[in-house]
């Protein structure tokens, strides 16, 4: 893909980019420096120049260097004008070493905008044009047509050294342009990869939140709906109580879903509700009790924790209780124990229920719990106990910020 005009800004970070007028000023200074260098190099070796000849030298020097002021916007046309002017200047005997500086700068912009394969054609044209012009000026053209007559005693030596330095200068300009383009393309790929990774992580976070919210709430709702349906004719009051539980759990789930979806908005669009934390565990335990699971919450003194750690702990306990509701046959007893050590939060959700069916492959819930623990550089172990039931143990490191 060809870069647009103004290629020098590329994919550089914003803090490294120059303003347009700054770039034009830099190119004008560069053009002025090449003009003075070309004129001085030509006049230094000239003998007996007239006023008209000096004027021609200045005009040719300007024709070679002034187009560089717009090289960032029109790199290929500028290269063509600069190369043509340089060939004319060399044919008239002007300094090869000074004029090819403009060719190298223009070729740098071409390599930056077109890439190495397409710009290689421009490199070949520059090498061939400058070489032919220098050879013709030194060996074929009559000295009366030259602004600076060559030294006939050292034509071969001067020609070889001039061509060598010219080839090196032109090649260096092209190589540097290709190198800068490659670095900018690589930086662009890295930025795109980071953006895609951020999008994937955000999608995973949202999916994990939605899974935890919906799975827990739906487990309670399904359990109570089955109870309501079973006792509807014989015990309508108990059925009505179950429907009330379904209503309250549904409302809470709807609030959680709105909170998760609200996190997609920008901070300026809405004041989002805080993420659930350890203070909301009693409500979570009460929902599990409504699903006929006897839950005991054992929570000691917990220091102030980062919101992200509290959210991870809440979701791990929520998913563990959801698994108890879904998989443990009633009546089931469960203990939720939360303890804190300096720099670490420990969670344990242990039940004594008998599985409704044989254990199979780990589901998304266990995977999500492990991912939440791993995000905080913690660990999570889950599996059946030797004495019966299922246990989930998690360790979440955190940065201590003092007691609550």
Short description:
The chain is α+β, with helices and mostly antiparallel strands and 404 residues long.
What does this structure look like?
The protein is an alpha+beta fold. It folds into 2 domains: 7-196, no CATH class; 275-404, Heat Shock Protein 90. The chain is 61% helix and 11% strand. It has 10 helices and 7 strands. The chain has helices spanning 20-45, 51-65, 75-91, 96-114, 116-139, 155-231, 236-262, 281-290, 307-327, 364-375; strands at residues 293-299, 328-329, 332-341, 344-351, 354-355, 379-384, 390-397. Strands 1-3-4-7-6 form a 5-stranded mixed beta sheet, with helices on one face. It is rod-shaped and about 115 Å long.
Number of helices: 10
**Rg value:** 39 Å
Helix content: 55-70%
Pattern of helices and strands: HHHHHHHHEHEEEEHEE
Query: How many independent structural domains?
Result: 2
The fraction of residues assigned to DSSP E strands is: 5-15%
Number of strands: 7
Strand order of the largest sheet: 1-3-4-7-6
Oligomeric state of shown chains: single chain
Poorly predicted runs of 5 or more residues: 1-16, 151-157, 266-272
State the end-to-end CA separation: 57 Å
- Which structural class fits the helix and strand makeup? alpha+beta
Taken from the alpha-carbon principal axes, the silhouette is rod-shaped
**Largest beta sheet, briefly?**
5 strands, mixed
Question: How confident is the prediction overall: mean pLDDT?
Answer: 76
